[in-house]
Amino acid sequence: MTQRPVYLDHAATTPVRPEVLEAMLPYLREEAFGNPSSAHRFGRAARAGIEEAKRAVAEAVGVEPNQVVFTSGGTEADNLAVIGGALAARAAGKPFRVAVCATEHKAVLAAAHAVEHFGGEAIILPVDAQGVVDLAALDAALARGVAVVSVMWVNNEVGTIQPVAEVARRCRDAGVSFHSDAVQAFGKVPLALQDVRVTFLTLSGHKIGAPKGIGALIVRDRRAVEALIHGGGQQFGIRPGTENVPGIVALGRAASLAAAEQAAFATRTAARRDELELRLRDLFSDLVVNGGAGPRAPHVLNASFPGTDSEALLMHLDLAGIACSAGSACTTGSVEPSHVLTAMGVPHDLGIAALRFSFGRSSVAEDVAAVAEALPKIVAKVRKLSVVLHR
Questions:
Q1: Which helix (H) or strand (E) holds 226?
Q2: What is the rounded distance in angstroms from the CA atom of residue 185 to the CA atom of residue 375?
Q3: Which residues are catalytic?
Q4: Nearest alpha carbon to residue 276 among 363, 191, 203
Q5: What architecture (CATH level 2) is domain 18-258?
Q6: How many CB atoms lie within 10 A of CB 169?
Q7: CA-wise closest residue to 132 among 105, 158, 108, 110
């Protein structure tokens, strides 16, 4: 066992920050527990918390407060943008067709396939070996006519930063709604929506120190989306229902902190990530860093250890007190390579041998040292077992 638990899975989820917990507690207690739709003082206190959180999120990403729509998380926001955007386009007589990147989070890919279920069409845009979207394929899709294009800002498995500004420009010129899942980008890379004309942007609270179960969709044009949930008139009718006030307040506080600390966070985590990558390259001459030659966010390292399988590596690392991931948290446990690595052209044997190490605010140099100390023995053990099993 290591001397202290090592958590290098911050891309999966992060601990709730003390400042965030403190901000949300009054909305769980008697001070401000009311229904924000109520007219009395308890309701007004809850409503004030929501409005302040809207302002905080809007300021953090450079939009207007009335463009912030709170959701239950990133998955709901992705579905609202892709399916709701496609439905709104169909209602306006536009093509009922969406184009999404092959390496998107499963929430976007599943939403695109749901459009097919509703009678539409989904175009899957290929990527290169570093995970960067094929812009020629995007142009071909735009020429055919699409309702929504979805290209994530930062990939959740390998950290690839997409050319979002260029994708946004091409979509704008074609008169097409553009959605970007920025769940892994917010707080890690600069997000300035004043300069990038996305129609929809997805955010998630639990990736930046807020609780699970709260997220937001930035909606720059309300006419471009149709509600998927129907009920009261909350949130302009785009996402009705009594709001999760404590979660919303938590997201507002976490968003402010993430935006203020982004540059320092990027510098610190990139140093840790690069240090681990260098040490692993020294330890393993055959190490393959997936997406390592492309533009990457500072907090993610995805590496393959030939002759192993990631599930066995994860089990032994966990026993050693080290937590990381085999890829997306939503696909961990699968015996197949992640769809992201497959789309990038990573061979099957390397795809099933990939680990994702993701860094956060609490990551320190000792974490890197612990991984570097533990991995050689673990990899040797797993390789030996693999040889025995495949005789």
A1: none
A2: 28
A3: 330
A4: 363
A5: 3-Layer(aba) Sandwich (3.40)
A6: 14
A7: 158
